[in-house]
Structure formats: structure tokens, C-alpha cells
Specification:
Two copies of one chain form a homodimer.
Chain A (H helix, E strand, L loop, with lengths): L1 E6 L2 E7 L3 H12 L3 E6 H7 L8 E5 L8 H13 L7 E6 L1 H13 L6 E5 L2 H7 L4 E6 L2 E8 L4 E4 L9 H18 L1 H8 L9 H19 L17 H10 L6 H18 L8 H10 L16 H8 L11 E7 L2 E6 L3 H9 L4
Parallel strand pairs in A: 2-9, 3-4, 3-5, 5-6, 6-9
Antiparallel strand pairs in A: 1-2, 7-8, 10-11
Amino acid sequence: MECTVPLGPASTRLLLGHGSSQNLAETLSLSGTRVTVVSDENVSASARGRVFPDQDWLVVPPGESSKCLERAAWLWSQMLALGMDRRSALVAVGGGVVGDLAGFAAATYLRGVPFYSIPTSLLAMVDASVGGKVGIDLPQGKNLVGQFYPAKIVAVDPALLATLPEAEWSSGMAEVIKHGILSGGDFWSQLLSFHPADRSQDKKLEALVTAAVRVKVGVVQDDPFEKTGLRATLNLGHSYGHAIEWCSDYGMSHGQAVALGLLAGVRLSRLLGILQEDFEPELSALLERWGLSGTLPDSDDGRYSWERISLALGRDKKNKDGQWCFVLPQALGRVQLVYGPDRAAVERAFSSLLV
Amino acid sequence: MECTVPLGPASTRLLLGHGSSQNLAETLSLSGTRVTVVSDENVSASARGRVFPDQDWLVVPPGESSKCLERAAWLWSQMLALGMDRRSALVAVGGGVVGDLAGFAAATYLRGVPFYSIPTSLLAMVDASVGGKVGIDLPQGKNLVGQFYPAKIVAVDPALLATLPEAEWSSGMAEVIKHGILSGGDFWSQLLSFHPADRSQDKKLEALVTAAVRVKVGVVQDDPFEKTGLRATLNLGHSYGHAIEWCSDYGMSHGQAVALGLLAGVRLSRLLGILQEDFEPELSALLERWGLSGTLPDSDDGRYSWERISLALGRDKKNKDGQWCFVLPQALGRVQLVYGPDRAAVERAFSSLLV
């Protein structure tokens, strides 16, 4: 399956389905394009048997700490040492960290070289790999430096999920469930009928991943540069989620934090009288099914105090002129941006996660 | 005077003429845009009395060594510390180094914030400020990391040249003369009749600067991303020029190196039978008029040996598949790209600069 996602002046060709990663590798090989692969130590071991076995691989340590300026500088110097010119291509094979880092290196090396992406985690497949956001973290915060630089082709190949650790399934499913709320309708029903055991059924898994990717595609192609507010709806669950993630010192997975953010968001929406269809019972059941907790872990050190959470909420990129911004659900398939909600309600909805 | 330069999906508004820098400052002030200025220690002292006296200024040391990753990282951290968000603007006030560095910081901070430019050197006015190229150097070479990120508005204000040191006039005039060869016709005549004393005549100076900028505008708007080869013609004189600059360990000014490159280029063109109109006498007279030498300085250390020059020529970004590439004049107003010229002729033309 294949589609093209227009993203402003550029566009991304999306290859979807089992075997699409090999299709991309063959396409590049046939075109005679010189390829260098960026990956991490965890992924490269298994992936190199499958794609680009004879190309140069630049392998970084796994984890968010690789998404830094020093690692980008290392990539640039390696690309120079390999003699890459403006027609050489960089291919990311890995999760979100690898995709963001490699995409930033490709966007800036010699003012931009062709970039391709093979996401290997569920999270990267349904979220990070489509939409053109690339970048690195600074010591002061995540994703503070980057570009909009869409991959020319993204191959979303569910076959690569066969070896995905259980914790990463949970993290990815949180974003899939978020897409379910944004989409509602058939995709929500599909989610409700998809159980962990179904992951071994290629057709069912492919249908789920494809549907989840399509939600993201539908949003980013209508608002590629976050100008209209539409793309901001993908931030559902992320205001609370990012705040919780920061308070955990990034010890909590992104997906678990988003799961808690989705729950708190439904509750805040109810408190503000915005929620018209109460889907919390179904949401809670889905989160539980995928190993995502509905309550914050106990902590003696006050890391999840309202004081810290509200500090983090105050730094959300969606805020305007000091007003907090939340994406809140009205019903399945319908969300709205809310500026300056009652802070007591925001606190009450958050507190519900502590019990 | 004002015009709009389309550059792919973006475009640059160009304000030309005495007072245009204040016009830009007023425009930004009226729009309520939050402004942070990037400048260098030499320029900021005099410029701050003229534009943006009450805004935040981020001041870097003068010289090419500021166009580095460490300085970009410093800018990002300062922008964060100042609380700049995606609607805040960065304004470069300085020469080419400041424009390239600030533009790169603006292109990447929070995935891109609005960027404006007030070039203060002749070189930056007629060359670097229009066309969207921003970037930094790596230890391995110049301009290896960057982006195409056109300034929203560029104010080319010849009034700012009143305090320009004589050496910088020479360097800038080398690029103006290059534009004269590319353009030919009226602009070449204008150049021939413009003498150093005319710099104090506002109208004459403004007419010259405006005409030179228009040559660059005409080229970059037809080939913004260097795809067709047209933009590459701006590299006239730069194959030899970059090689000479590198051999001098960047002790020679860019303009002086380009001046020598222009001369050697005419001679190579004659040797290859490409030159149809021999304008070397006029070119030599112009270079001399603006303090640009037609011969290489004596050096006992062999820095300008053919061995070193040919090594540097081999690294030119225009080369393809190991073939050297030169932009060579056929006549005033007409140049061509030449791949794989006879290397003995390339050496002979270069050697003519040594006597």
C-alpha cells in the first residue's frame, strides 16, 4: 500500500505494509543512490540482516541522550569522512530518537541531503516518522532545536515489530489510542476489538498500524507547519503528559505519561462541561489492556506535586500570552483547543491520577 | 525602493536605499514583534545607536571563527534564556558571518523563528544577504552545515557603509565586479565610471549597490536551491578563489582571493578557446582601482604551490564524479559551466598570478 503526503512545499511518500522496508531498500539500490544508514546499537544488530547489509552504518547509543548536539556533530563529521555529497542519502533505521537525530543531520549537512526513514518502533511508525519534524534536545529541554524536513519516503513495515519489547508496545499503543480518540468511529471500534494476541496476525496488525498512521497523515497534510491549530490537536493528552514526563525526570515512558494525560484530559473536559460523550470506561479498559497504568506511581519525594506539575504546564509550547492551552475531547472523533481553563479544575483532574 | 524575491516556497522582501534599515526597525516595532538582535563587537558599537537601541543584543566576537557550532549553541541558549518563542524574531545586524550564523540559529531554534537581516558590509549587501543560504563552518571546512532559510525582509542601506574600513570596501568590490561580469551591459559601464571618490555621493553609491544586488536577485529567484546550474554561475571566480583562500590559511580576504580567481578565470577561458570578448584590460583596471592585487603575494613556504592549489580545486563543491568544474566567462554578460577542463591549462592560468 502506498500514498503521498503533501507537507507544504515537500511531500513524503509512505510505503505501508509487511515488506515495505525491503521495498524501500530495493528502490534506493535500483536508483543507484549512495546510502548511509543511521541506527542505534539495539536496532542495528537485528535490522542489518534485513536491510542495507552492505552500506555504511553510523550507530549511536540507544536512548534519548543520543538526541543531542554532540551526537549530531559526530554524524556530520562521519558523513564528511565517508565523503557524502549532496546527492548521497541518509536513511534512519530505528525509533523516534534515531529518526529525529538523523533527520536533523540530513536537513543541515551541506544545507540538506535526501532523507529516508524506516521506523522500527510502534511509536515511531504511528507518530514520529510522518510529519517532517526533526531535531535534537538541548540541556534546557526536549526538541528545542530542529527543522521541518520531511523524509522523501517512509516505510512503515509492521514485520519489524516482531522483536519489539513489551514496554515499547505499551508506549506505542498509548499514541494509537490517542489517534483512536481523535478519529472515533470505525477506528475506535477496530481498537476495541484488537487484543494483544492479535499482534501475531499479520493482517490484523497491519490494518491497525495503517489506520493509526492514516489519522496522523490526515492531520499533518492539512496543517504541515502548525499554523492553523489543526496539527496541535495531535497534542491531545500531551499537556499533562509532558508535565508528568518532566516531573518523572523522564524515568516514565512517553506512552505511559500520555496515557495518564489522556485520562486526566477526559476528566478535565468533564469538569469544564466540554465532554458530551463519556468514553472514559472504554478508554480505561483499553489502557489497562495494553499495560498502561491509570494512576501515578507512589513517590515520597513530591516529584508529582501540583507545584511542579503546574510549573511544567506553564512551559507548554501551545500556551499563549501566559494562558495555558489544552486539547480536550468533546466526544470520540471531536476535540477542541481550550485556552486559559480554570486552574482549580486543571488541578482536580490531575489529582485524580494520584488515587 | 522595494521588491520581493521569491525563493522556492518562501520569499524575501528587499528594502533598498538610504534609511531602509530604520524603515525595517520601524516596521517591526509597529507590528509589535518581539526582536532580538545578533551582531558582532565591531558593528554593534556604532549600529546600536541607529537601530533597535532598546532591544536585546547578542554580540559575538568578529571574524569567521564565530561561524561555529559552539557559537550557534550559545545563541540558542541565550534565546531560551530571553524566553524567545516561535513568534519572536531574530535580526542579524552585521556582515556575512553574523548573517550566516544568526540565520542558522533562527532556522533551527524551535524549528524556525522569523528572521530579518540588515547587512552592514558591502560584501554582505551584494552577496550573502540575499538568497537564503545560512550556516556554520566545521573544523573540516566552511559552510558544511546549514539550511536554505531566506530572511523575511532584508534592508540594504548604503548609509551603513559610511564607516566601512577600506579593506572591506576592496573585498566587497571584488563581488560587485564579479556581478558586473555576469551582468555586462549597463552595469559594467556603471562600474567603469564609478570611482572611489563617488562613494560619498549618496545617489551614485545607492545606484551601484542596488544594481549589484539586482544581479544576485535575478539569479537566485530563478534557481533558489542550486538545481539548474544557474545559481552556480554566481561562483564565477570562486573555484580558484576558494583554493587560494584556503592555501593562504584564510589570511587573505575573500574578496582579494575572488579578484585573483576572476583574473585566472579569464585567462583559463582564453586558453581553452572559450573567451570571445577579451575584457581583461578593463577587469585589471577595475581591480587596481579598488586596491585589489592582480598577483599573488610572495611566499617562501610554498603555500601557493600547484600541488596545494590542485588539492583544494579537487574539493570544490561544484565538481562531479571527480571532474573539476569552473564557471568561465565567454564575454561580458555570458558565462558557462565547464567540467573537466585540461589540467595543464588550469595550472598555466593559475601560474600567471605568480609573476
